[in-house]
From TrEMBL:
The protein's name: glucan endo-1,3-beta-D-glucosidase
Signal peptide coordinates: none
GO term, biological process aspect, one: cell wall organization
Enzyme class: hydrolase
Residue span(s) of domain Glycosyl hydrolase family 81 N-terminal: 34-307
Single GO MF annotation: endo-1,3(4)-beta-glucanase activity
EC number of the protein: 3.2.1.39
Catalytic activity: Hydrolysis of (1->3)-beta-D-glucosidic linkages in (1->3)-beta-D-glucans
Length: 670
């Protein structure tokens, strides 16, 4: 865990709060899990909210629970130039006969979960689904019950082997499904849409679709049908290394599926892994490729974490221009001025001020740093000691996390922070400012070390030790997709979502800086690794290059960036703006402008494509100067002097940006 102090101290730094807006986790989580902090942004979150009946994506299948059944969809893709999404139509539905037990829970329940999987129980029908992401099989156990396998299509043929341990079902939508049983089971076609079991069965059943109904895949699935995963862990064993370890049972080697980023990062030294390039399943995230092995090692790029620009402000640049802007920006700092009480906007304001201190260091104009330091203390301390009247941090013991007073009372307040929306983003800005202040004033840092690490642990807890846990493991980070999600405790039919991958990068960059400030090498290593994965994921799935073949051609032709990225959807629009607001899309995937931003947008060819695509949007009436600043910042990557002239003409800036910061960025470009 990313704590230097005992975990049990954490909640007492901030008062406990019973938030009225939070759902009751006991509806869907098994009782033995309720004493520990629970995941709030996980890949199975829809199973734990509302009626628990909205689908989640497990690669390659969409899984949709109902009261006493579970539906599986190998989804098709609907697409146009504005958005595309996976279509969830239940190809297969599995149900069991009701168990005569009045005490049985009538809804499904989460009986256990891991980094890469979840066990979904249906006590009313004695079914347990071992759902592990990236498995080409859906695996479930049956205990002394009969089962029904139905479809929303029709079964055109159904046959089994002589041992009654394997069946082949062909549907009229051209799909072929394979059914494997751990012991003989008598399955018969009841009618055109259902298959039933004759007599009770106890054992394990696995089902898999034949992608594109290719018959040559069937022997491969036969071969691996007897080895199945029950859970999966993701360990940051070394800097810039992530290792998957699946717990498997049965016999033989384990077959899993890798998405394109997995394949890119799979270590060449991982001799225990074999890639089957001929085994492909379709996915909204790109083709999923077969991989043999129950342990993978992923090696993301090493990304340097530095306080200042990677190459420094150029010696031939007019530092006086930066210093002049810096003086004006520092003079404007006033802790008594009105500022938003919402944690997101407040965080951006203090992070903006912290940037000024680091820019002052980089241009060797240190006179302003004491004034910046005083401003940061005046702004940050009220949030840490609870004296900021309009809002404050509090601890929620129900799910296990730091929320805010405003957010705890109204789910719409504080951008949904009270229901765990965007925790990494909000806290990332606070921790960036805190890290800089610790660097400037180490004595202050020691005084507030426990507070800083508590805020950090809300989204950066690496290990959970059961009885002594305060926060869930890496709250927002998705170990399979390798990026963070924002949505929190809200049901969405399209699954999880995230708009601003750059703010996720900033969250882990800020965590790494905090590690630098406190000399915490383990924190620096872990946070840097996650930051690198976020950068890889942003380039893979948010950035849409002209020659990108992963996405449909009509969408790629009209878009250089995804607006909102969902588990099962890619949208060109934003929460607050339509598809024509291209400058907002660009800004939301660049802000905040920090040293690591140049790694996020290191592909100059793509940057040119992106700016060319965005510039016409600036001609619309009402485009704000703040968004223009981000567009010009990227333009400076390849046309420094043209962009500089445009930046000099700006009169306003994003609340997390400044003229000093834009000039620093431009003058540190090649």
């Amino acid at each position: 865990m990313a704590h230097s102090k005992p975990k049990s101290d954490a909640p007492f730094l901030f008062p406990k709060c019973e938030a009225s807006v939070l759902p009751d986790p006991s509806r869907f989580f098994s009782n033995h899990l309720l004493s520990n902090p629970l995941p709030t942004n996980s890949f199975f979150k829809n199973f734990t909210l509302g009626k628990g009946d909205q689908p989640e994506y497990f690669h390659p299948y969409l899984i949709k629970p109902a009261k006493s059944s579970l539906s599986i969809s190998y989804p098709s893709l609907f697409h146009n130039s504005d958005f595309f999404h996976e279509v969830c139509k239940p190809n297969i539905t599995i149900s069991g006969s009701p168990v005569v037990d009045q005490s049985s829970r009538q809804t499904h329940q989460i009986s256990s979960f891991s980094d890469l999987g979840v066990n979904l129980d249906f006590p009313s029908s004695n079914l347990r689904f071992l759902l592990v992401r990236g498995s080409p099989f859906i695996t479930f156990s049956v205990s002394c019950n009969t089962i029904t396998i139905s479809t929303s299509h029709e079964f055109v043929s159904f046959c089994g082997n002589s041992l009654s341990t394997k069946y082949v079902a062909k549907l009229n939508n051209n799909q072929t499904w394979l059914i494997y049983a751990s012991s003989p089971i008598k399955l018969t076609k009841h009618d055109n849409s259902s298959i039933r079991c004759r007599g009770e069965f106890s054992g394990l059943i696995r089902m898999a679709v034949l992608p594109n109904s290719k018959p040559d895949f069937e022997p491969v699935l036969d071969r691996f049908s007897r080895s199945y995963p029950v859970s999966g862990d993701a360990d940051f064993t070394k800097p810039f290394t992530l290792e998957y370890k699946w717990e498997k049972r049965g016999h033989g080697d384990l077959l899993m599926l890798a998405h394109p980023l997995h394949l890119k990062l799979l270590s060449k030294d991982n001799e225990s892994v074999t890639v089957l390039n001929n085994i492909k399943y379709k996915s909204i995230d790109g083709d999923l490729t077969g991989v043999i092995g129950d342990s993978w090692v992923l090696k993301p790029d090493t990304v340097p974490v530095t306080w200042h620009s990677l190459k420094g402000v150029k010696q031939d640049s007019p530092r006086e221009e930066i210093i002049s802007a810096l003086i004006k920006d520092v003079i404007s700092l006033n802790s008594s001025s009105p500022v938003s009480s919402w944690s997101y906007h407040y965080g951006k304001v203090i992070a903006r001020a912290a940037r000024l201190a680091l820019i002052a260091e980089e241009v060797s104009y240190l006179h302003v740093i004491p004034e910046i330091s005083k401003y940061l203390k005046d702004m940050i301390e009220p949030w840490l000691d609870g004296s900021f009247g309009p809002n404050s941090f509090v601890y929620d013991p129900k799910w296990g996390g730091i929320i805010t007073v405003q957010g705890s009372r109204n789910a719409r307040e504080d951008h949904g922070y009270g229901i765990y929306n965007n925790h990494h983003v909000h806290l990332g800005y606070f921790l960036y400012a805190i890290a800089v202040l610790v660097k400037i004033d180490p004595l202050w840092g020691e005084r507030y070390r426990a507070h800083a690490y508590t805020l950090l642990a809300d989204y950066m807890t690496l290990k959970c030790d059961g009885f002594d846990s305060t926060f869930p493991r890496l709250r927002c980070f998705d170990f399979f997709k390798l990026h963070s999600w924002a949505g929190g405790l809200t049901v969405f039919a399209d699954g999880r979502n995230q708009v601003c991958p750059s703010e996720a990068v900033n969250a882990y960059y800020a965590a790494a800086l905090l590690g630098l400030a406190y000399g915490d090498v383990h924190l620096v290593a872990a946070a840097s690794t996650i930051m690198s994965l976020e950068i890889h994921a942003s380039k893979m799935w948010w950035q849409v290059k002209e020659d990108k073949v992963m996405y449909p051609k009509d969408f790629t032709a009209k878009n250089r960036l995804v607006g909102v990225l969902w588990s099962t959807k890619r949208d060109s629009s934003l929460w607050f703006g339509d598809k024509e607001w291209k400058e907002c899309r660009l800004g939301q995937q660049l802000l905040p402008l920090i040293p690591v931003s140049e790694v996020l947008f290191s592909d100059v060819k793509f940057v040119k494509q992106l700016v060319k695509w965005t510039l016409p949007a600036l001609k619309r009436d009402g485009v704000k100067y703040g968004w223009k600043g981000f567009v010009y910042a990227l333009e400076s990557v390849y046309d420094k002097y043209e962009a500089l002239q445009k930046i000099r003409g700006l009169h306003e800036f994003d609340d997390g940006n400044s003229l000093s910061n834009l000039l620093w960025w431009v003058h540190s470009r090649d």
